[in-house]
Write a structure and sequence with these properties.
transmembrane helix; Type 1 glutamine amidotransferase domain-containing protein; 3 domains; DJ-1/PfpI; two-stranded parallel ribbon; alpha/beta; Rossmann fold; globular; transmembrane
């Protein structure tokens, strides 16, 4: 067979491959071009008769490339592309029924505290408070009748971290809420806070909290006063850094024998391998050193600890439940809120962790088909990537299968 004919066959096969991938991920022109190039390059390798080792090495490389592209296209096809394309940047409070309808009468005030730290120590890495951990708790408190004030160790405008992958309608509404933004841009210095004005204090996470929460005497005093008087003390993710140096009037550490959750060592080190040299301590270790009974949940999934008037959450995905638990601890039944697709995906992942794939699929059926609820497939797919990063290949494929199952069932819904 002539070399030109082999190249032609390669181009035809490559074009067919490109069309298949392009149709799968809805980007036909680009992938036809990619397919033609790969096909032509593969066909051209057959001209290297005098160099068989090079020829077969190139064929192996192109074959691997095709496999990787095919897998990548299949993975992308599992994602809710249309949902991901939705523009939520102009979301308004008035558009969210939970916030705009059946408003709860005013019951009091809650103080939210955020970090002023904009870098992680001397590493130069940027940080701040996590927007989603503030915005979601802020609106739960407001919806349940509690006005929210925002404080920080130094006051003023603190640095904020926006993670586009996690942003939802509440988070964008917060950015477009003039009242919320005025509070977030003009935070009260913690030493100027009138502690008696609030029913609870909530420490927002963000890696910056590791640097300016632990040694702040005003934070320590507020936490001590609130805890000892029965007021609610809440903290999420890195927010529990506010608790690590609090000593009660009887001389015991606040954390002694308390059930507590925070961002775990495992979660920290997966994202920042040199965290031990960047942070003054690993938060899980520090809480345990203070006498806490550390409640460790699954990685990057909802876990909270409720120890009387001390309520803590493991990570950003714990914020909704933690905020509503604070409302319960204050003596009220939380206002009904439609559970988000992200929360439903979290429930599925927890069932997968504890009871296996079959039970997780049963929950998918229940949520999608029976209850007509939404599921954020992106979160499930993201956890498959986390499994791969941890070298858990079986779990990686198991979660990909779960994502595929959720996609198939979503077409029935």
């Amino acid at each position: 067979m002539k070399s030109e004919k082999k190249i032609g066959i390669g181009i035809v096969l490559g074009t067919a491959f490109g069309i298949a991938i392009g149709l799968a991920i809805n980007n036909l022109p680009v992938w036809i071009g990619v397919g033609v190039v790969i096909g032509a390059a593969t066909g051209a390798t057959f001209r290297l008769k005098k160099h068989p080792k090079i020829k077969w090495a190139l064929i192996s490389i192109f074959s691997l490339l095709i496999l990787l592209i095919s897998f990548g296209a299949w993975f992308i096809n599992l994602l809710p592309i249309e949902e991901m394309k939705k523009d939520l940047t102009n979301s308004k409070v008035e558009e969210i029924q939970y916030l705009s309808q059946n408003k709860t009468p005013k019951r009091g005030k809650i103080l939210a505290v955020v970090t002023n730290s904009e870098t992680m120590g001397n590493s130069g890495k940027k940080t701040g408070y996590e927007l989603t951990e503030l915005s979601r708790a802020y609106y739960v408190f407001e919806a349940n009748g509690f006005e929210v004030d925002i404080a920080s160790p130094l006051g003023g405008k603190p640095p904020v971290v926006l993670d586009d992958d996690d942003m939802g309608i509440y988070d964008y509404a917060f950015l477009n809420d003039s009242i919320a933004q005025n509070k977030a841009s003009n935070t009260i210095a913690i030493n100027d806070v009138s502690a008696e004005d609030y029913s609870a204090v909530f420490f927002v996470g963000g890696k910056g909290a590791m640097f300016d929460f632990p040694e702040n005497k005003f934070i320590q005093e507020i936490v001590k006063k609130y805890y000892q008087s029965g007021k609610v003390v809440g903290a999420v993710c890195h927010g529990p850094a506010a608790l690590v140096n609090v000593t009660l009037d009887n001389g015991t550490h606040l954390l002694e024998n308390k059930m507590v959750s925070s961002f775990t060592n495992e979660e920290e080190l997966l994202l920042i391998s040199d965290a031990k040299s960047i942070f003054p301590f690993l938060l899980q270790d520090k809480l345990i050193a203070g006498g806490a009974k550390f409640n460790k949940g699954a990685m990057y999934l909802e876990t909270i600890s409720h120890d009387n008037n001390l309520i803590t959450g493991q990570n950003p995905w714990s914020t909704w439940k933690l905020a509503e638990t604070i409302i319960e601890q204050l003596g009220y039944t939380p206002k009904y809120r439609e559970i988000t697709g992200e929360e439903n995906a979290g429930k599925i992942l927890l069932v997968y962790e504890r009871e296996g794939s079959d039970k997780a699929k049963q929950l998918i059926d229940k949520l999608l088909i029976q209850e007509k609820k939404s599921i954020d497939r992106l979160l499930i797919a993201s956890h498959s990537v986390i499994a791969a990063m941890n070298g858990e290949i079986g779990r990686f494929f198991g979660l990909l299968g779960l994502t595929s199952y959720a996609k198939k069932k979503s077409k029935i819904n």
